[in-house]
Amino acid sequence: MTFRSFILLSVGLLFMAYAFSQENTDSDAGFEIICQIYTEALNSNMTKEQRSNYIFNNIESRVRSKDALEAHDVVFQVDPADRYIIFKQSAKIVLKRDWHCKAVEALMR
Questions:
Q1: Least crowded by CB within 10 Å, which of 33, 65, 99, 106?
Q2: Domain encompassing residue 37
């Protein structure tokens, strides 16, 4: 392997490692922002309809993580009793760690 090939390979591997860590950071931030939005809604004096609009509008404008957005969209196609369990499991798979949010649990039903 020439020195030039070594440098190109090293730069490529560093770029891939950065891209992977950035994607995981975005996903982590996405799930945390969703939790924050639900917490804001739960702590407000909004009606149920206002809370729902607030949550969906803010998730659309504030969350950038494709994984978190997809997980959030998908859970609303299942039975309300199963939503939080599925969302929490999706977060665990994406983040590779346990995840929990009391506000999401309370309002996602």
A1: 106
A2: 22-107
What is the spatial distance between Cα 58 and Cα 52, in angstroms, rounded to a whole number? 10
pTM: 0.77
Q: Examine residue 102 and state whether it is found in any structural domain, yes or no.
A: yes
Question: pLDDT (tens digit, 9 = 90+) per residue, 8-41?
Answer: 444 444 434 444 444 556 778 999 999 999 999 9
User: Which residue do the tokens 């196609």 mark?
Assistant: 77
Total count of domains within the chain:
1
57 belongs to a structural domain? yes
**Residue 4 located in a structural domain:** no
d(CA 61, CA 91): 20
Kindly provide the b/e burial profile for residues 52-65, where b requires at least 16 CB atoms within 10 angstroms of the residue's own CB.
eebbeebbeeebeb
